[in-house]
Predict the 3D structure of the following.
Amino acid sequence: MAQIPNDEDEKPLDPAVERVRRRVMRFIAINLGILFVALMAVAIAIVYRIDAREEAAAPETGGGGESVAAEGTIALPEDARIVSQSLSDGRLSVQVALPGGEAAFLIYDLASGEVVSRVAVESGQ
């Protein structure tokens, strides 16, 4: 039967081999430390970006807890009636029924509060 080598029977390593083994172990420890620091930096960057994106997407809240994205006044022609509206990319499109049966689309820039475009709607024949 083959004998299983006992740890107590092992001879000490040659001093040159022991130096190489220590150098390799130190190299491994340093590289694992650098890898750990790099992975932590990546994880922190991901968490920071997710948090920054959520803060940018969250609407501003007023003092009463209500969500307020924009505030202002829209000037419509006298006796005009709003038929529909649409909001997209900081622009508000309002379909207005004017007196006399005319219709128009008014496009407002929410940042400036001014009319960017006015499109008259004519009935076709």
